[in-house]
Automatic annotation (TrEMBL), chain A:
It comes from the Bacteria. This is RNA polymerase sigma factor. The lineage of its organism: Bacteria, Pseudomonadati, Pseudomonadota, Alphaproteobacteria, Hyphomicrobiales. Keywords: DNA-binding, Sigma factor, Transcription, Transcription regulation. Belongs to the sigma-70 factor family. ECF subfamily. PROSITE patterns: SIGMA70_ECF. Residues 16-77 form the RNA polymerase sigma-70 region domain. It holds the Pfam family Sigma70_r4_2. InterPro entries: RNA_pol_sigma-70-like, RNA_pol_sigma-70_dom, RNA_pol_sigma70_ECF_CS, RNA_pol_sigma70_r2, RNA_pol_sigma70_r4_t2, RNA_pol_sigma_r2, RNA_pol_sigma_r3/r4-like, WH-like_DNA-bd_sf. It comes from Microvirga puerhi. The keyword RNA-binding does not apply. Gene3D superfamilies: 1.10.1740.10, Winged helix-like DNA-binding domain superfamily/Winged helix DNA-binding domain (1.10.10.10).
């Protein structure tokens, strides 16, 4: 299928989002770029299936998401690649202080089950509606809502969002004790 | 407990506005939800700002050229 200039522009314009999604999903830039490239090739060879006027981004995300999962399943069969293995890989990368928060966040994100991670990314980061995300993942809207909810809950506990030092009664006690000593 | 700004503790609160199967699941309070959301978007935005690797421009250009030649 011929990518006409307008379509080429549209595909190129989608690349930053596709990469951000693929990197967040897989935890690896190299693998993410391969995923994005495969997505573009797959999209181009299936252009006849794309309904003009519908959301090109959503269609591309569906392709990328499906590629990621089929690859994930394949890898799992080949080598035992237990979940969280890339969470530990991520930790190895030294980061300067400025990006420490994101690094913590990425590590926490990588600890989520893939279905929760992708739901949260699609809705919370990429800004798809619950309905669009459900279409992309091929599941019910309620399932997406539930996954997003569980993902947020898990992240909050992993990142100790509720552990606020300046306000908690424990830290007030600590501060008081320190004042005494 | 009126949305007092200083209260940042994550609590499990029942939320009647949630439908589907969420009704039975624990919910984060709004402040914690916002914090998670803000961090998520900040991380994602940083990734979105990265320049598009040349391989993608090259790939699409190559495809365009090869299909143009075919139609000649």
């Amino acid at each position: 299928m011929t990518p006409d200039p307008a379509l080429r522009e549209a595909l190129l314009a989608a690349v930053p989002s596709l990469r951000a999604f693929a990197i967040s999903l897989s935890g690896q830039v190299d693998r993410a770029d391969d995923l994005v490239q495969d997505t573009l090739l797959r999209a181009l060879s299936n252009l006849h299936r794309f309904e003009p006027g519908t959301n090109l981004n959503a269609w591309l995300f569906t392709i990328l998401r499906n590629l990621f999962h089929s690859e994930y399943r394949k890898r799992r069969r080949e080598v035992e690649d237990p979940e969280g293995s890339y969470a530990s890989r991520l930790k190895v990368q030294p980061e300067q202080g400025a990006r420490l928060d994101f690094e913590d966040f990425r590590v926490a994100l990588a600890k989520l089950p893939p279905d929760q991670r992708e739901a949260l990314l699609l809705v919370g980061a990429q800004g798809f509606s619950y309905e669009e995300a459900a279409n992309i993942c091929g599941c019910a809207v309620g399932t997406i809502k539930s996954r997003v909810n569980r993902a947020r809950f898990r992240l909050a506990s992993l990142l100790n969002v509720d552990d606020v030092d300046d306000l908690g009664p424990d830290s007030m006690t600590r501060a008081a004790l320190q004042g005494i000593s | 407990m009126t949305g007092e700004k200083g209260n940042k503790l994550a609590r499990v609160i029942p939320e009647e506005s949630l439908n589907d199967k969420l009704a039975s699941e624990p919910q984060l309070d709004k402040t914690s939800q916002k914090r998670i959301g803000d961090q998520l978007r900040a991380m994602y935005d940083e990734l979105m700002q990265q320049p598009v690797p040349d391989r993608f421009k090259d790939l699409l250009e190559k495809l365009e050229k090869s299909s143009a030649e075919k139609t000649k």
